[in-house]
From TrEMBL:
<protein>
    <submittedName>
        <fullName>NADP-dependent 3-hydroxy acid dehydrogenase YdfG</fullName>
    </submittedName>
</protein>
<dbReference type="InterPro" id="IPR002347">
    <property type="entry name" value="SDR_fam"/>
</dbReference>
<dbReference type="InterPro" id="IPR036291">
    <property type="entry name" value="NAD(P)-bd_dom_sf"/>
</dbReference>
<dbReference type="Pfam" id="PF00106">
    <property type="entry name" value="adh_short"/>
</dbReference>
Length: 241
């Protein structure tokens, strides 16, 4: 029985990825800040026949993240698959706003580095030694496609951080060749759950499963943005009504 850890598990893509992997008999560890959200996702997976458990932690709190991953391993066994896809909350965006390319400052970038790049490094380095020792494992790291394939100047401070994360994962993919461990980056150019077929969480979760099983691509770009995406701005979940 394999174990998947979803770091940044939420009610849309995280839930869909959990269900897709659970359908293949994979146990699921759910890690994010909100115990309420995590428990709702865990409850949703209760009919799949696998173990799905919540391990609350903030990825910017490195000891807490380490403790959550350790607890997941103790409860569910070694983490064979890591999916890392943190996202800011509205409170995060009020505290550390998105910044347009001409207005980027050092301080505006530091918070984003903490969430995306440094949190990702911490999560990966927790599971990678065990994967290498066992000679098998999958690491899937997700970000908005502004990390490289798509230009989004209105969120430049985020893209500096996710661009660094993307570059590292692409290099990690190359470095892991021949080890039995596979790493890939998923660049999401979509308003999840709001666009066409390719934007739907279940469709995207199927793509994650293909990455895990086929283990060939260094990067998957999910492209389903409307033509006016620059004018449209943030996905609805990040916009206060």
């Amino acid at each position: 029985m394999s174990t998947l850890a979803i770091v940044g598990a939420g009610p849309q893509l995280g839930r869909a990825i959990g269900r897709r992997f659970a359908a293949e008999g994979v146990d699921v560890a759910l890690i994010a800040r909100s115990r309420t959200t995590l428990q709702a996702v865990a409850d949703d997976l209760s009919d799949t026949g696998v173990r799905a458990e919540a391990f609350p932690a903030d990825v910017t709190d490195r000891p807490a993240l380490h403790a959550a991953l350790t607890a997941a391993e103790e409860r569910l066994g070694p983490i064979d698959i890591l999916e890392y896809s943190p996202a800011p909350s509205l409170a995060d965006l009020r505290r550390a706003p998105l910044v347009e390319a001409t207005k980027v400052t050092v301080d505006s970038v530091l918070t984003q580095l903490d969430l995306y790049l440094l949190g990702g490094v911490a999560a990966v380095q927790h599971v990678l030694p065990g994967m290498l020792e066992r000679g098998t494992g999958t690491i899937l790291v997700s970000s908005g496609a502004g990390s490289g394939p798509v230009i989004a100047p209105q969120v430049a401070n985020v893209q500096i951080a996710t661009g660094g994360m993307r570059n590292w994962i692409l290099n990690l993919h190359a470095a892991l060749s021949g080890t039995g461990v596979y790493a890939a980056h998923v660049a999401i150019a979509a308003f999840i759950g709001q666009g066409g077929h390719d934007s739907q969480p279940q469709t995207m979760a199927d793509a994650y499963w293909r990455l895990h099983t086929e283990r060939t691509e260094a990067e998957l770009v999910i492209q389903d943005l409307p033509d006016d995406y620059l004018e449209r701005g943030l996905a609805d979940k990040f916009v206060e009504s």
